[in-house]
């Protein structure tokens, strides 16, 4: 019986995260081209011949319109890779590119791949939230019968989590302000420089602008400024349906709407040695799990427990965490349940500040996690992502 193979992360890169609005930096950039920039930048940084790639496994959430038709294949061609390089697009909602990383790593571990890219993209300027469903009944009557009380949107799930965990609006706003503070500090100290591949954008007047930084970071954010924002999800319908719900979430304690892409190069040890590549980390363990689809965003709690158990580690063995900040209540509920030290969580800011380009966020978290481990000299990093339908991915990487 052959020895198990390791999946190594050679490098990871991301675009800056743009605001997903008409005035956002990437609002006029086709998602295929945005994705291609991340792929091309990764290959240029590592010096690898793209003909070596066994597969490109990518995530995208809105797989309609400009992100339809296996968008990863078009990004591979737009990046200038050989036509022989295959690609596939996967959907595990917000965890799509983290799942892409799992699939790429599992391909390497099994011997099916030697060299693969895991990546992701989302252009929320082109494809707003809900573009893929268009108000249709995606669950069907059997699910409706099983969950007779009714499924709810993610914002209501986040409110229910805050209520269940006794989180006040002040706590949510304080956490959110800290995310912006940390991200601004990291940006100002050049801590994102290695992970970001700047992108040149042609403006309407024909001039060219090079984008270096994430656009959603607001360094002046305070608890006081966030306290002035209106509630995001309270209306007559939800207030009547949940009369005892103390609504507390605003746009300030939620992730914004964004555009971005990210890519991670994964190889076997044999391939890294043959190609002269120096890996930055090893995939130590992965896990995926399901949870209550009504609360929906709590899956990160059992996913964290599962991946730690599989790895033979405890929460205290982890040196850095990247927990996707879909909403502040999600991270604070996870922290309360796991006992993780918040000083180790999203130390360079999280999605509330940096942004959450859905299908790209899993690979973005990996890119940032590698940077944090290297900046702090840590060994183990854990990233975990909540996903629609009550799903969650968890990944532990070991810095080399």
From TrEMBL:
<feature type="domain" description="Thiolase N-terminal">
    <location>
        <begin position="8"/>
        <end position="269"/>
    </location>
</feature>
<dbReference type="InterPro" id="IPR020613">
    <property type="entry name" value="Thiolase_CS"/>
</dbReference>
<dbReference type="InterPro" id="IPR020617">
    <property type="entry name" value="Thiolase_C"/>
</dbReference>
<dbReference type="Pfam" id="PF00108">
    <property type="entry name" value="Thiolase_N"/>
</dbReference>
<feature type="domain" description="Thiolase C-terminal">
    <location>
        <begin position="278"/>
        <end position="399"/>
    </location>
</feature>
<dbReference type="Pfam" id="PF02803">
    <property type="entry name" value="Thiolase_C"/>
</dbReference>
<feature type="active site" description="Proton acceptor">
    <location>
        <position position="356"/>
    </location>
</feature>
<feature type="active site" description="Proton acceptor">
    <location>
        <position position="386"/>
    </location>
</feature>
<dbReference type="GO" id="GO:0016747">
    <property type="term" value="F:acyltransferase activity, transferring groups other than amino-acyl groups"/>
</dbReference>
<keyword id="KW-0808">Transferase</keyword>
<dbReference type="InterPro" id="IPR016039">
    <property type="entry name" value="Thiolase-like"/>
</dbReference>
<protein>
    <submittedName>
        <fullName>Thiolase family protein</fullName>
    </submittedName>
</protein>
<dbReference type="InterPro" id="IPR020616">
    <property type="entry name" value="Thiolase_N"/>
</dbReference>
<feature type="active site" description="Acyl-thioester intermediate">
    <location>
        <position position="94"/>
    </location>
</feature>
<dbReference type="InterPro" id="IPR002155">
    <property type="entry name" value="Thiolase"/>
</dbReference>
<keyword id="KW-0012">Acyltransferase</keyword>
<comment type="similarity">
    <text>Belongs to the thiolase-like superfamily. Thiolase family.</text>
</comment>
